[in-house]
């Protein structure tokens, strides 16, 4: 590998491909369509690894991202972000070329589609299953019924069913809590689906339940009632996912390579080039009450080792990162070394870094690093 001269996001292709295979095999085992969320990697190159594993349908988080992947051969895309009026021209352009599904959270967006849609699209109504970010509450039956009625009256919109993201699994701190949220989500979504499938007599074209959160997908083994799974962060995983219990550290497929630039023996701190503009400011709190902005690993010629328990990334400013070490570990790092840092939230870290480097010195794309 060429020398590291600045913060560089390394990707372990073998780990990433294993994570992709895990997703594919789990969905196959349960007989459910896999539509992984590409917002984590946002990479055509990583997308090709997904295609090679048999993935044919994807989820994205923006019209821009959908357009990027459509231009690179993906023909079945769901935008899992609420459709809004300002996107209409772009939606029409994309819907002419691919099978496009939209996420609906308001009656106003349905009206815009009725007035301005030129090409057929699929539509999922987003249900809030407890995350309280967006979506219709399952108990708001009058609103759900009215929205379905408006969708069904528009021949250009194909009502696919209901979508949920149980994002509150990220607040869980053990597998049992994740499992409970997952089961509650399935119960809510299947009840909503069954209620309105019966009410609108849609048995000839059954409605779908589409769910997607990485912790739930990773630990659950019961997906009965769902037709589609949309995990995202499984492709890379990260330190937050290890703390939640979604994965082991050896499944994390990205690490930031950072030059060591200074040492301070009076406080056993080591400074690296790698700050908030590289990692984001997401953190976890460890068992000692310390904020952890990343876990420290030793880089090897073809990857990295296990997290070093005597060190953690303790503080970030714009370009600086400060590693706190034990007295014994302090002397194992020297100015001029390059150390690895496992990110807390790989989606944000990848978005900030706008590209990846493999261990055979290939540069891999990221949407945010492209001029479109």
TrEMBL record:
Molecular-function GO terms, alphabetical: D-serine ammonia-lyase activity
SUPFAM superfamilies: PLP-binding barrel
Keyword Lyase belongs to the record: yes
Biological process according to GO: D-serine catabolic process
Superkingdom: Bacteria
Keyword Nucleotide-binding: no
Keywords: Lyase
Residue ranges of domain D-serine dehydratase-like in the record: 253-360
PANTHER family the record matches: D-SERINE DEHYDRATASE (PTHR28004:SF2), ZGC:162816-RELATED (PTHR28004)
Record family assignment: Belongs to the DSD1 family.
Protein name from the UniProt record: D-serine dehydratase-like domain-containing protein
Organism the protein comes from: Microscilla marina ATCC 23134
């Amino acid at each position: 590998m060429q020398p590291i001269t600045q913060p560089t996001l390394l990707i372990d292709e073998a780990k990433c491909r294993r994570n992709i295979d895990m997703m594919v095999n789990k969905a196959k085992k349960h007989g459910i369509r896999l539509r992984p969320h590409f917002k984590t990697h946002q990479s055509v190159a990583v997308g090709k690894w997904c295609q090679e594993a048999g993935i044919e349908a994807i989820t994205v988080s923006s019209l821009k991202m959908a357009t990027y992947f459509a231009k690179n051969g993906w023909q079945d895309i769901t935008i899992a972000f609420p459709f809004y009026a300002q996107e209409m021209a772009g939606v029409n352009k994309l819907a002419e070329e691919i099978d496009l599904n939209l996420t609906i959270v308001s009656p106003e967006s349905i009206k815009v589609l009725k007035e301005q849609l030129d090409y057929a699209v699929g539509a999922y109504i987003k249900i809030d299953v407890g995350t309280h970010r967006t979506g219709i509450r399952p108990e708001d039956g009058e609103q759900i019924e009215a929205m379905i009625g408006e969708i069904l009256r528009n021949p250009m919109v194909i009502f696919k069913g209901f979508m949920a993201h149980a994002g509150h699994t990220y607040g869980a701190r053990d597998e049992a809590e994740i499992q409970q949220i997952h089961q509650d989500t399935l119960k809510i979504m299947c009840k909503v689906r069954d209620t309105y499938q019966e009410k609108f007599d849609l048995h000839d074209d059954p409605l779908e339940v589409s769910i997607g959160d990485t912790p739930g997908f990773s630990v659950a083994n019961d997906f009965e009632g769902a037709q589609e799974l949309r995990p995202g962060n499984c492709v890379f995983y990260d330190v937050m996912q290890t703390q939640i219990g979604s994965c082991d550290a050896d499944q994390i497929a990205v690490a930031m390579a950072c030059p060591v630039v200074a040492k301070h023996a009076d406080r056993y701190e080591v400074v690296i080039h790698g700050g908030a503009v590289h990692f984001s400011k997401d953190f976890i709190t460890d068992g000692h009450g310390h904020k952890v902005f990343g876990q420290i690993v030793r880089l090897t010629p073809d990857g990295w080792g296990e997290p070093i328990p005597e060190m953690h990334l303790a503080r970030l400013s714009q370009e600086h990162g400060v590693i706190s070490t034990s007295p014994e570990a302090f002397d194992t790092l020297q100015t001029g070394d390059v150390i690895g840092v496992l990110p807390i939230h790989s989606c944000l870290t990848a978005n900030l870094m706008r590209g990846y480097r493999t261990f055979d010195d290939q540069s891999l794309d990221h949407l945010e690093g492209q001029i479109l």
